[in-house]
Design a protein that fits this description.
about 450 residues; alpha+beta; BirA Bifunctional Protein, domain 2; five-stranded antiparallel beta sheet; three-stranded antiparallel beta sheet; 15 helices; about 55% helix
Length: about 450
């Protein structure tokens, strides 16, 4: 499986050339030694033992040759180059095979018209090729048109090479998730997507029909649409109107897989182990963090304003210590727990600075920024004196003052950041609380209806 991408470079050609030929990222620790090793006839692996190759240029003078072509045709501005990469599935290719495929791909894609530097890296744990392409044609001076057609051609050529080598090929590539979301999910923190996955897994584990599956998901705060007439199956929170396509959660959560799993459950329903399995399912919401709050809720005076809002919100999240834990019902509240450290900082700032209203927070930010500007001027004054100071004792005193200013500025900037977070989180907190209260109200009404039916049956 080879993943490909092409992007334009506007700032510096030398930067990306240096990155592609970085000795710390290539297979050999010293790029020059690797090139010399390839040239002296002592290769022991193959002709591709060097893992940096120049197409229509030399590896050690690639930057100079590319710039000469640009100066010759007077095209040194705009997109100075293009940076592409080709990444293979971990453990599927050897370093030699990876580089050989990269060189072959560059020759098929750019033939003899453009100068290309191909370098094989392994710094991410996965073998991948970097391509640095000069944006100017070396024969007629025309700029490379890096449009969608060029990208798809690059991807198709890479896929054909993978098929020839019997490597994995993505037949239906989907949009990837953002980098931030990828690392959040990798760390095991709840997000909108992995909470949906957990809800679907739970529903599939105890459902034998589409009706049961839909009902269990709705009890968890989700509405799923598996209509066969629709091209894509969707899922959404009961508090949002925007749907998420199930294929974005992964292949095992697509419509076909869900129907297959429900069919298997229906066949298993007749087995004697099924009832035991259903009784054993009792998922609990695990609380891993607590909000820091000093004092006793029984003896403390009544809390009002923003602090009261935050403390009630933290209670609804299930994070207040020494209190009966509340289990969040809505997906929005279950996803908000990963921000608990941020909420904790905001509560402590409200307590220490006595910020009870939004207007007080805005005033605090304005005042603190003025204080920061004043301290920055004083610190700059210290820097100006240090430039002309020649006495060691005076220099040491100036450095001490500078360090004190830096520590104070760091603290004030952090407080401004936390106060800004309060303004950003205020509307989101209110929305999440309303969603949670709506879920609680629905559950209360359902329990009341069930109780009335029981009373009617008992006469």
């Amino acid at each position: 499986m080879a993943v490909t991408k092409i992007g334009a470079i506007k700032d510096s050609l030398s930067r990306v050339v240096d990155y592609a030929a970085n000795p710390n990222k290539t297979i050999y620790s010293d790029l020059k030694n690797a090139i010399h090793y390839a040239e002296n006839g002592e290769k022991t692996i193959s002709e591709e033992a060097c893992f940096v190759t120049g197409i229509n240029c030399n590896t050690d003078t690639a930057y100079e040759e590319m710039k000469n072509v640009q100066f010759h045709f007077g095209k040194t501005s705009g997109n100075v180059a293009y940076h592409a990469y080709q990444s293979f599935k971990t453990g599927e290719v050897t370093p030699e095979q990876c580089h050989r495929l990269g060189v072959e791909l560059a020759k098929q894609m750019w033939v003899t018209d453009y100068q290309v530097l191909v370098a094989t890296h392994f710094n991410t744990g996965t073998y991948h090729n970097h391509f640095v392409i000069n944006s100017v044609n070396m024969w007629n001076g025309k700029k490379f048109n890096c449009n969608k057609k060029a990208y798809y051609k690059f991807r198709d050529l890479s896929d054909s090479l993978c098929e020839r080598e019997h490597l994995t090929v993505l037949t239906n590539p989907q949009n990837k998730i953002s980098r931030t979301l990828y690392y959040v999910e990798k760390n095991g923190e709840p997000t909108k997507y992995n909470l949906m996955r957990e809800a679907i897994d739970k529903a599939l584990s105890i459902s034998c029909s589409l009706k049961e599956f839909t009902y269990v998901l709705k009890k968890q705060g989700y509405i799923v649409n598996l209509n066969l007439d629709l091209k894509y199956a969707t899922i959404r929170s009961v508090n949002y109107a925007r749907n998420t396509r199930l294929y974005r959660l992964g292949e095992k959560y697509d419509k076909e897989h869900i129907f297959q799993k429900l069919k298997e459950n229906d066949l298993w329903k007749t087995a004697p182990e099924f009832n035991t399995f259903q009784k054993s399912i009792n998922p609990k919401y695990v609380v891993s963090k607590k909000v820091r709050f000093n004092g006793c809720f029984a003896t403390t005076r009544k809390i009002t304003g923003l602090k009261a809002l935050y403390l009630h919100y933290c209670y609804m999240l299930g994070y207040l210590p020494k209190a009966k834990q509340h289990k969040p019902l809505s997906p929005e509240m279950r996803a908000a727990w990963r921000k608990i450290d941020r909420y904790s900082q905001e509560v402590r700032l409200m307590d220490s600075k006595e910020l009870t209203t939004i207007s007080a927070v805005n005033e605090f930010i304005s005042t603190t920024k003025k204080q920061i500007a004043s301290l920055e001027k004083q610190r700059q004054h210290c820097y100006n004196k240090m430039r002309h100071c020649k006495q060691p004792s005076v220099m040491a005193e100036l450095k001490s003052k500078r360090d004190d200013f830096t520590k104070t500025l760091t603290l004030l900037r952090k407080e401004v950041k936390v106060a800004t977070n309060i303004l950003e989180d205020n509307d989101e907190i209110k929305h999440n609380m309303n969603a949670e209260k709506a879920m609680q109200q629905k559950r209360f009404i359902t329990k009341q209806k069930t109780r009335h039916r029981y009373d009617d049956l008992c006469g």
